[in-house]
Amino acid sequence: MIAAIEPSWYLIVSALLFSIGAFGLLVRRNPLVMFMCIELMLNAANLTFVAVATKFVGNDVVRDINGQTAVFFVLVVAAAEVVVGLGILVSILRRRPGANADDLAELKG
């Protein structure tokens, strides 16, 4: 029989994923890698929402769906980010293949 994993372990994994995403966002200059780091941070937030929802409700039955509702909204925001942001990034990288985040800052005008 597999022992149930405590929600605190999910919070630890979530904090680790968020830290990796934040570190990658601060260190890397490639816009696509920065984009993936933002997605990693959003997924870490989703894991936190679900872990906290199960911790405060209990492990047997999920009666409170506030955590899952928050995850749904985060997924919608992430999908919108992917559609708009990735489209802009791909169009910029087609014109300037070696562009990095500093080059994109020059596009402000």
From TrEMBL:
GO terms for biological process: ATP synthesis coupled electron transport. GO terms for cellular component: NADH dehydrogenase complex; plasma membrane. The keyword Oxidoreductase applies. Coiled coil: none annotated. The keyword Zinc-finger does not apply. Its EC number is 7.1.1.-. Signal peptide: none annotated. NDH-1 is composed of 14 different subunits. Subunits NuoA, H, J, K, L, M, N constitute the membrane sector of the complex. Its main location: membrane. One of its GO terms (molecular function) is quinone binding. Pfam families: Oxidored_q2. It catalyses: a quinone + NADH + 5 H(+)(in) = a quinol + NAD(+) + 4 H(+)(out). The gene is nuoK. This is NADH-quinone oxidoreductase subunit K. It is a multi-pass membrane protein. It is found in: Cell membrane; Membrane. Keywords: Cell membrane, Membrane, NAD, Oxidoreductase, Quinone, Translocase, Transmembrane, Transmembrane helix, Transport.
